[in-house]
């Protein structure tokens, strides 16, 4: 099972970016934790981060080729990127959206996700653990779908 982990803009700055909101862990720390959980769950992880909307769309589209599911933190694009929403809808793969912070507790513009309605689920507010919880949920969905097929 191959899972693509996609991170959007400014998440490359985790560790130094607003630590009061996003914690002091880095993206490399998160990726290492996801990889360790992936080994436990028997799946292979591939990582991608970009600050550019089109590159994120390209990456989502490329997942049609050999990827079983996507774990994505679209970052600020969550709130307004119809292009990323349409790419998620187009690939017809299970996608789980994650956020480090609880977007529902924050500014009103962050409380709306245009991408969540085309995802299987959303995990918010658990810090770096949002990714690990999201990965567990995603793997469960893929396994159930395989059994049903
Ligand atoms: C975020 C929340 C977004 O509103 C913000 O733009 C981010 C990070 C999160 O993980 O909490 O960049 O996606």
Key traits:
single chain, 149 residues, alpha/beta, Rossmann fold, 5-stranded parallel sheet, 17% strand, globular, binds 1,3,4-trihydroxy-5-OXO-cyclohexanecarboxylic acid
Provide an overview of this structure:
This protein is of the alpha/beta class. It has 5 helices and 5 strands, in the order βααβαβαββα. It has helices at 19-22, 27-41, 53-62, 82-91, 129-148; strands spanning 2-7, 44-49, 69-73, 95-99, 121-124. Strands 2-1-3-4-5 form a 5-stranded parallel beta sheet, with helices on both faces. The two termini are 15 Å apart. The model has no long low-confidence stretch (mean pLDDT 97). 1,3,4-trihydroxy-5-OXO-cyclohexanecarboxylic acid (DQA) binds at residues 10, 73, 75-76, 78, 99-101, 103, 110.
Structure at a glance:
With 149 residues, this protein is of the alpha/beta class.
Write the layout of secondary structure elements.
Layout (H helix, E strand, L loop, with lengths): L1 E6 L11 H4 L4 H15 L2 E6 L3 H10 L6 E5 L8 H10 L3 E5 L21 E4 L4 H20 L1
Parallel strand pairs: 1-2, 1-3, 3-4, 4-5
Helix pairs in contact: 2-5, 3-4
This protein binds 1,3,4-trihydroxy-5-OXO-cyclohexanecarboxylic acid.
Largest sheet: 5 strands, parallel
CATH class reads Alpha Beta
Number of helices: 5
Write the H/E string, N to C.
Answer: EHHEHEHEEH
Q: At the third CATH level, what is the topology name? A: Rossmann fold
Residue-averaged pLDDT? 97
Oligomerization state: single chain
Tell me the distance between the termini: 15 Å
Q: What is the radius of gyration?
A: 14 Å
> What is the molecular shape?
globular
**How helical, in percent, are the residues?**
25-40%
Number of strands: 5
Low-confidence stretches: none
The CATH homologous superfamily is termed: Dehydroquinase, class II
Question: Which CATH architecture would you pick?
Answer: 3-Layer(aba) Sandwich
Q: Biggest sheet: strands side by side, in what order? A: 2-1-3-4-5
What is the SS-derived class? alpha/beta
Percent of sequence in beta strands = 15-25%
The number of domains is: 1
- Name the ligand types: 1,3,4-trihydroxy-5-OXO-cyclohexanecarboxylic acid
